[in-house]
Structures
1.
Amino acid sequence: MPDNLRSRIVTEGNARTPNRAMLRAVGFGDDDFSKPIVGVANGFSTITPCNMGLDDLAKRAEAGIRAAGGMPQEFGTITISDGISMGTEGMKYSLVSREVIADSIETVCNGQSLDGVIALGGCDKNMPGALIAIARLNIPAVFVYGGTIKPGHYDGRDLNIVSAFEAVGEYSAGKIDDAELKAVERNACPGAGSCGGMYTANTMSSAIEAMGLSLMYSSTMAAEDAEKADSSEASGKAVVEAIRQQILPSQLLTRKAFENAIAVIMAVGGSTNSVLHLLAIANAIGVDLKIDDFETIRQKVPVLCDLKPSGRYLMVDFHQAGGVPLVMKMLLERGLIHGDALTVTGKTLAEQLAEVPSEPPAGQEVIRPWDNPVYEQGHLAILKGNLATEGAVAKISGVKNPQITGPARVFESEEECLKAILAGNIKAGDVVVVRYEGPKGGPGMREMLAPTSAIIGAGLGDSVGLLTDGRFSGGTYGLVVGHVAPEAAVGGTIALVEEGDTIAIDAHQRSLQLQVSEEELAKRREAWKPREPRYRRGVLAKYAKLVSSSSVGAVTDLDLDL
């Protein structure tokens, strides 16, 4: 079987003389037309520090592809900076960008008949966007993560982007002055790389490594370290070998691989967004993954890593302590991941982990020993009840008691909610409700890092609940419940909540209840009317028309054949 299985359609035969003529213009020679052509999907951008180092990594990946006998063809894809768009109307485009990234990579790879693809990404939606495309394409592929940012430093403590968000809440509560607020701003982000805790970008890079589509240890490397560039070149060589062996995503992204990823996410204390993204990737590859599967695995897997946002350490510390491979080895030893799952190298996960230690090294506290976990069970609980019949995702790490019953404080947007928090109008015992921020209602399902950070900064993290049909940043912690489905825009019960209603959040019982009688809810439902669409043209209007419930991943291609 030739290595250029797909691209030969544009490079072989007299009829393809024009095609070859154009390829010669971009660097092909006589001996190159029989080589596999590998797309290099480069998310480079100076919009965000997460992606500003990707161009150099792409060049190293191209070098690896050439050294292995392939022909790289680089193309660009977009990114949105979650951190910069946070708290603004622009954040509505963040989750939408996942679909745009997936569509763009799929379009180029199929439009150009590429034999394989290596995708490089940094900010949060780059990873799931690339994986959705890779799943749809089902051509040999490797994902390269741009790497984590190194910590900033101020007054003897490590800083990261969440430090800046929380400083806003501290400033509003009178805990810090103007000078300290400005100092945090100036020192939080010292260079290239994605946000430094176990936030969404680092959660998804860890999950992709667990699923075998990235090289070992690559998900936790710092963006600016030499090993990241070396790993990118090795990834280029790996994708060419995967083309030769025809190792396809459908062989890697199996049910076992998704279960492995969920187990790792629970063990490392990962982001709520991982639930949304893994459901979407599973949809793209055709694996029957349900939101309830996260709860099943959560109950078996402890949180082993003491990582921010609720813990003490950053991604650079996690990498030094042993990273994802060490966590996977600990899980494998206890039968909590599938060692026979295949990786892009052609080896099984167990074979890849054979030389990895079974226990964390002494003298560090980032990765805990099995008999002394951070939490006995995973931290992402799936709640259901009359407020979320399809489910909701609660992040309960860093919470002293993941239960609260209190009066609803209802807000129709994130901006209204943040204004009330900063004005001191939210009190201990309140349950904050932010609605019409779901996939359709937003549209775009904004993240709520600004309100949750303000709550933490105000010292209310253990005494205020917050629930929304929108999302939370990977930097969020506290008693927060997101992805409430059905969402308000389609008439979910969250749309019927009134100011002062009693809401009970109980993560122990996995329950989310509006304590209003069925008779009263029926009256409210009868009176409820859908809101006019916020957008009637452009990408957000198209997204709102197509997007599914968050309970199935907020995908835009569900049931298109019906």
2.
Amino acid sequence: MELQTTIYLFVGLSFALYLGIAFWARAGSTSEFYVAGGGVHPVTNGMATAADWMSAASFISMAGLISNMGYGGAVFLMGWTGGYVLLAMLLAPYLRKFGKFTVPEFIGDRFYSKAARNVAVLCLLIASLTYIIGQMTGVGVTFARFLGVSSDQGIYIGMAIVFMYAVFGGMKGITYTQVAQYMVLIAAYLVPAFFISLNLTGNFLPQLGLGSSMTGTDVSLLTKLDQVVTDLGFGQYTTSSAGSMLNMFFYTVSLMIGTAGLPHVIVRFFTVPQVADGRSSAGRALVFIALLYTTAPAVGAMAKLNLHGTVNTAVGLTQTAEGIQVNADVVKANGDLYATEASLVYEQRPDWMKRWEKTGLLKWEDKNADGRIQYYNDATKNEVAKGKAEAAGWKGNELTVNADIIVLANPEIALLPNWVIALVAAGGLAAALSTAAGLLLAISSAISHDLIKGAIKPDISEKGELMAGKIAMAVAIFVAGWLGLNPPGFAAGTVALAFGIAASTIFPALMMGIFSRTVNDKGAIAGMLAGLFVTLFYVFAHKGLFFIKGTDYVDMVGGVNGFFTITPEAFGTVGAIVNFAVAYLVSKMGAPVPKHIQELVESVRVPKGAGVATGH
């Protein structure tokens, strides 16, 4: 079957499945809309949580980031998985025992303040809206490549799909839809990884293939990759780092606590019947997540090697009808990567490059007018690589590859069968849509339940609240789509800001709310606002106010990464420290926490059962 037809078939069937599930599991009450009625089985909730967790950032971008950064990309693996462990062990069981629908509701009740609840709503909305931009952008990119439409048209289609199953189904519809989406996305991630690992190393499991020798040789895959990238002026793949050691640490911590503070995943633990089920579903979700996260390093490394092998024959990979195969003699010879005949003739480039060029995410510029593709690091400080490039007549890097296409293009680069490529297309859309739906529900519940019912109109009927929630979600879909069409900067920056906001505002408030009996209402409010301010101040200093170009003020923070070499993406850790410090200082100067609230904190931590989630 022709490739485009196969893609239409796979994507169409997956969409039909999602919409069918949403119709079957549509919500009829606020409990079903917010927490799926509180009766979701732990295995089901584990799969849904994994799908909620593994967004377009995990499925589409993470392996690309690891591919570009090498070892330094481990901050994403450690940060995102470590954040889930923090959430599962330190937050989820206690929040489930508290028995409310939303994170702001917990903060409002624990800190006995509507103002605290409203500040939490503000932080949640900012974090969720900025995070969702990346999901909608991912939807646009995936549709643009695989459905032959523009990126903008792809976002419109994505908005329509999410509207149909999220607005009508609520958490109940989203939960069971996410189970299906998990199955699609994990199959889409693992199947091509199995094929590629088998081709390159003879080992079926990519986790083992990453540390294995290349087929027919005694040369390990990582040793060969190191040799190729360092010869071409890139940093050594297995030792590169994301800035200074301090920045690596702060980056990892920011991702961890930012992840643990993202409300769209926290709310999943309100959907199970008992506290024990919350712990069980957390453990199961970690297993489901690990299937992808332990595969990502292999996907990134193998995709990078395949890409270099495609455009440079001296790497030692050969294109055959069965996919890219290892040419053992060339691999062992460590041929001259700068030889004229080694560079791929542009007119002979494979079809996958032609398809991705149409999206603008893969670009070629013939800088030395030789009709061949030179792919190397022209900004390298490696004098040997510089000298070889000059001697070969190379005038600069000619191939630009967006990191976000690595996973989506991976089966095409490896020349895998059409059905595998189509499966990856469906998986990429499943990842983006599943997280977008979870974020939209978090936004909807914050507006309808925490803002309207909690602050504006406490006597609103259940039917009215349900309608308000659906309207809020529809508006949120529109706003998210508009931001995806007009992103305030690049997606990586806005996603980093989302994690930074969650790390510096929501996570500290939850931790202090559960584990401290001395932090009062004024302290919690001051802490959240202080954390929010310092994080936004530092990020906007580098990226511009609301990511508007030309409005940056980096000199005010001591230059680029001027605060102890910490990058804006890692600054959420600093914001969290400020939040904790301000909250405790202000609490010390204020009135003590009421006795009944101290007893509430104590009761939340006592390991006893909890009833169903309530809305009041």
3.
Amino acid sequence: MAPAGEAADAVAIDEAGGAGPLPAEAGQVSEKEARQVAEAARESAWDRPSFGKELFLGRFRLDLINPWPRSDPDDVARAEEFLGAFGAYLDSEVDGAAIERDAFIPDEVFHGLGRLGAFGMKIDRKYGGLGLSNLHYCRALMRAGSINPAIGALLSAHQSIGVPQPLKMFGTAEQKQRFLPRLAAGEVSAFLLTEPDVGSDPARLATTAEPTPDGKGYRLNGVKLWATNGTVATLLVVMARVPAAEGRRGGITAFVVEGDSEGITVERRNAFVGLRGLENSLTRFHDVVVPTENVIGGEGKGLKIALTTLNTGRLSLPAMCVGAGKWSLNVAREWAADRVQWGRPVGEHEAVAKKLSFIAATTYGMESMLDLCCLLADDDRNDIRIEAALVKLYASEMAWKIADELIQIRGGRGYETADSLAARGERPAAAEQILRDLRINRIFEGSTEIMHLLIAREAVDAHLSVAGDIIDPDAGLARKAKAGARAGVFYAKWLPTLAVGKGQTPGAYAEFGPLAGHLRHVERTSRKLARSTFYAMSRWQGKLERKQAFLGRVVDIGAELFAMSAVCVRAYAERDTRPENVELADLFCRQARLRIEELFTGLWSNTDSLDVAAAKRILAGRYAALEEGVATPPADAPWVANWTPGPSTAQDVRRRIPPAH
């Protein structure tokens, strides 16, 4: 039940349709072929422990996250020094409101960030970088995003999925020595996967990389869409399809490409509803020659590199979501205490009090999940592919709800721009901007819908590894028989473990004090979730992959359980230094348990099948009369613009940052 492929670009916007010539290797791929490409790209081995994987199997492995992981003291000291200087620079030298107003990050800001080493936060010190841990890197992004989210996106796209991270994980020693010092010194990188016809389905990738006759390089041709940093980047990671041939594997391959290579044209800087300072491009490659030594990881490894890079790269996005939660909590708290209506501060009215409670508890929950993921990622003994995906999914959805609640608390002032508020002498709290800036996070680096499918695939991996051939229509009788035998052994051992557990013991987890009951609930619920998943597989078998709403609820329950676990372990670790966090953890868990209860109800009581049937009628135009009476968008242009091979006919709009004086 492999999900559709996942777009890994920093702005990989789901359901990107398109019309353009595809190479023969891509063709008009079928749904099955698209799934096979995605399945081949995913990591299949589980050679390190994963709290998230065990949770979905009904095994509450609290020992994998408790005691709360700790950072190396020397790393902390170095990071704190940088974060202090970084924060001081942002506060004194960067005008976030001007970036929003002008839709432009000034050259001087690039220079200042470069001097501080901000472009090398994740690059090893031996290459001139700062070598920060994931935890402190994410705290830096959170701080930058609080000044203006476009700065956070600039630094994140450059380091989390741009050239530094793929080279760190898959690059040769020569590649690292050649490129990383440049990037640590302030050059900007970008990641180019998405195309006009490739969003969440990379099987249709059309950019080609033809080997040159002399065997010394490749010739790239194609168009890339939504490349964050694409207008300013001097080094690019480009995904292109190498044709298969005798003695040549071919396939989607990752290349490091010089941004000023002949044949590259930045045809547009794209504009969005939020992140107005984002330097995001439509880029054309026409006969761009790339040397063989610039291939990352080998031919055909491109998608695997992209997805593996995202395991830790996804942590940057929830960092900015957590920052948005903290900012929203500050504004909501101070406003709700100051604003008086009906004789009392508005925060004392129950309708507003519930919103304040949700914002505070959820911000604590998001931060706990993120910090735990970062600390686990900093320890190579852990596999965090599920945990990182869960925190990306959870934080992007919850931060959006937080911002929406903030606007409701602020009322008319929440809908008003910061400049308009300041013009009449009021505090310029840009709530409407944060709502616009946060909206893309539910689409960035895998939309919510794609994340549900990706996590669900990993959550049922143990089942598919033993019983996949049973539900595979292409498997022969011999394969099905072997799978049946394997499944019998696996389920004979596994199913009894789901009947009883530590969560049913009244005194279990007593050391966690008032939070012990929540951990018992997590243990019981993880087993209930595993039973529900098994029942669904038994009921729908191969058709389960089409039950996307069901799988989404399974994943959302898992996310809540992971969040509950994180807050309890964190609050317990901080009980002496921050005793108030035990209250926040308890509050969060009580709210999460209500959400979980609703999600479990929705597993079996829903309108999913009715909705699918209705959608087919809607697509067929049965209810088109409902659209009458309004002016609709003109139909004289395609939904997705065509592109044709060849040299660019557009003006090059790339932006080059001049050297600092």
4.
Amino acid sequence: MRKLLFLFTLTALFWFTNAINGFAQNKSDAETYEADVIVYGGTSGAVTAAVQVIKEGKSVIVVSPDKHLGGLSAGGLGFTDTGDKSVIGGLAREFYHRVFMHYDKPDAWKWQKKEEYGNKGQGTPAMDGADRTMWIFEPSVAEKVFEDFVKENNVKIYRDEWLDRGKGLVKMNGRIVSFKTLSGKTFKGKMFIDATYEGDLMASAGVKYHVGREANSVYNEEWNGVQAEVFQHGHYFKNNISPYKVEGDPKSGLLPYVSAEKIARNGSGDNKIQAYCFRMCLSSNPDNRIPFPKPEGYDAAKYELLARVYKAGWTETFNKYDPIPNKKTDTNNHGPFSTDYIGMNYDYPDATYERRKEIIRDHELYQKGLMYFLANDPRVPADVQTEMKKWGLPKDEFKDNGGWPHQIYVREARRMIGLGVMTENETLGKTPVSQSIGMGSYSLDAHNAQRYVKADGFVQNEGDIGVHPKKPYSISYASIVPKKEECQNLFAPLCLSSSHIAFGSIRMEPVFMILGQSAASAAVQAINRKVSVQDVDYAKLKEQLLKDKQKLEL
């Protein structure tokens, strides 16, 4: 009897163990997802890349760290930086056409009559009969357009999935095989597209990159590196303002947000990057307005430098409250002390997720504190305070975040050092570009990178550059692919290979959409011909891009 009981127990244990192992295997299989192309990111460029893969008959998965799609385009940057709109084609132009179609409907105008807003930001049909466009929009409208793109094309998206940057990426024979996210999911593909602002997938794949400003000598440039005493916008101190806690007394110590570091020589390189901010969407409608609250840890003394700017007679507070539909704004940095949190983002590109969250939170508190200061501090001129009290965060935008944008403006982070590098020489037309995959036209626009004390003891900002190309320029295929010895199945259309100052022009949202789409077409070509990204037949790629109405050259 005992022998039979032992045999029965042993048999049961055998079947139980096999069942558990089978369950574990099935669970493992269920946590592995595979497609022809894996797109990492939730930005505007990620969406256009994914849609293009589907349109060309391949499978795609979008792995998005973000819960919301569209990046900055749906995160407050509704007053689009376009440059020459005629060179914006493909899915990017389709996006702006859909925005136009939305605002062409009467029910789109909840807080304002369409006639009152007028036709601001609307394009006219091109000579070839292209559809109407609108380049100014509310964040929620942009997000809806991106979500519509995804639904119509049945794009598979896994949201709030963060790349395991420590040990998640598997690479064999120079190619990415798969990567794992922090939740344990594994994503396998033939081709990979890093469509993030930060370039985390690119960096994890062992691709070389640069953070900061190159010296002018690196690429034979004029506008890269430190640019002290160069003022091409209004974002500098036009009057002599003391940076010390007690005006004129260095022994009293520096005010907040002023660096004690001495300015380097002009044209020299450093690890500094242009400032970040949130592109706040504000509302002036009393029924759709959340007053600016006093933020956690608010300290009015942190804004003493701005108080001194007002005391010196500055009057440009509202110059970049750009109007978007329904009595809202896309509010951008303007002036010597504004929404740009200068010098507080240097470690962001390579930082851990935890540290990035700290930086983002710090930016949020700084900017919320700034708005509260403007609306309430007695050192702010009365007319400014009166006007500020008319504004607040919108109740109907970013509803899950109290009206605050869910995306910080990462103006630059990592930039790949790829097969080819876009520099100011290409963007300014000094050097020809081969194998174009899209075009840019906006000015070489870099925001301030530091706030320092001049030799005369007064404060100044440095890094604000705005150099206009004489005409639109092409962007090379070589700038979105790594060197072959580093990775053979990866594209980086957002953190592309570019010098700091050239990136100041390329980094515009329409261009990111264009490059995302072009990267996707190249990925499909590489899969079809079973070649590396560096060996894609450009003639075939160009044929596809033109078919999709991309603009490649003037």
